[in-house]
Each structure stands twice: as structure tokens, then as C-alpha cells.
Write a structure and sequence with these properties.
The complex is a heterodimer of chains A (about 110) and B (about 110). Chain A is built from no helices and 11 strands. With about 110 residues, chain A is mostly beta strands. In chain A, a hairpin with a 4-residue loop joins strand 7 and strand 8 (about 70-75). Chain A is globular, with a radius of gyration of 13 Å. Chain B contains no helices and 11 strands. Chain B has strands at about 5, 10-15, 20-25, 30-35, 45-50, 55, 65-70, 75-80, 85-95, 105, 110-114. In chain B, strands 2, 4, 5, 6, 9, 10 and 11 form a 7-stranded mixed β-sheet that branches. In chain B, a hairpin with a 6-residue loop joins strand 4 and strand 5 (about 45-50). Chains A and B meet through strand 4, strand 5, strand 9 and strand 10 of A and strand 5, strand 9 and strand 10 of B.
Chain lengths: ~110, ~110
Amino acid sequence: EDKVVQSPLSLVVHEGDTVTLNCSYEVTNFRSLLWYKQEKKAPTFLFMLTSSGIEKKSGRLSSILDKKELFSILNITATQTGDSAVYLCAVRGSQGNLIFGKGTKLSVKP
Amino acid sequence: DAGVTQSPTHLIKTRGQQVTLRCSPKSGHDTVSWYQQALGQGPQFIFQYYEEEERQRGNFPDRFSGHQFPNYSSELNVNALLLGDSALYLCASSLGRGLNQPQHFGDGTRLSIL
């Protein structure tokens, strides 16, 4: 059965800290891995990774995929209170639908 | 550029009733996927519509059904509501079944069953 496991489930840090969120997966016929940020309502798209070892970067956020070891990490540097959210990892298999993990709830304290 | 829009925002129903949720995809998108997100959980895939047909289905009973219209908008219908159907229902749109593209989500409909 396809599954995605995220860790930790929750994390509390202070502004300025750097955090690393983890996502491991088992899926038949892997196509891509996606990261989303969910504050109150709609998950908003952050990154999509398809190739191993290539880092995607956007401002203070970056992500990398290891297809051999079946995991991805999402890094956030110099965290701000606005980074507080649930970060969702999803994997797309051959059928195209997204399989989500439970998410990591990040709280950034001033 | 309009994003994914869903209606209504909130809905309260009682057990046994039926409900219809609506979704308009992001401009230029032709594929709609529906997800159920229970509190504290990640979204779970219900089904996907493309070219007005259900293309894939997750592990949900037949009480969950849908439709896609020629303008690409979609409806999710749930019959014989159970307490366990209480959740946030998210609609996501993409282009061409989104096999190589990200899905973009709406704000969801919060469904509460009493």
C-alpha cells in the first residue's frame, strides 16, 4: 500500500532558527513529490521534485529529493512567525493522484 | 487570474441527509480532483474528473459521487451522511490530469454532521 510518512508531526522553534522537515515514502511507480504549506484553509504549492539530488529553492525555503533512499527534506532558514503552518508532503504515483502524509505542524515563536 | 473557488464555505447537515459541494477550477485548468481532510490528518483522495468522466477513484464508498460540467467545474455529492463524513473537503485543479504538474487547491468546504 502506498504511504507517506512525515516527521516530526509538530515542531516549535524561535524566530531565526533553521528547521528541517522530513518526508519518507513508499509508492508504486513514483512520478513526483510535492510540498505544500497549509495555514487556515487551502494548501498552497511550494515545490515539486522529480529528479534525485537536485535542490529546489525559493527564498528561505529549499527542498531536495533522494529517490534511492525514498525521502525528501524541506529546509526553512531564518524562520519567521509567518512560517507557522502545517507543511504537507505528497507523492504522486503512476495514477496521478496525490498521496499525502499527515503533515508537520510548525510553530515559530517570536 | 481566478484561483480555485469552492462553495459553500461552511455547511451543517444531519445524519442521513445528502449534500452537494461545488468547485470552479483555476482559469485554464481542465481537471478537478476532490480530497477529504479530517482534523489533524493529511488530505485523502476521493476522485478525479477529466473530460467530464471520473478517471480515478480513491478508497471511498459509492455514497460519494461527482460530476464535471463542460465548463470544467465540478460537484461532489455525498448521500446518507454519517458523522464520520465531517471534514474539510478540498478541490484541486490542474491541467491535463496534472500528471507532471502541481495541483492547486481551493479553500475548501467545512462540512459538519450533527
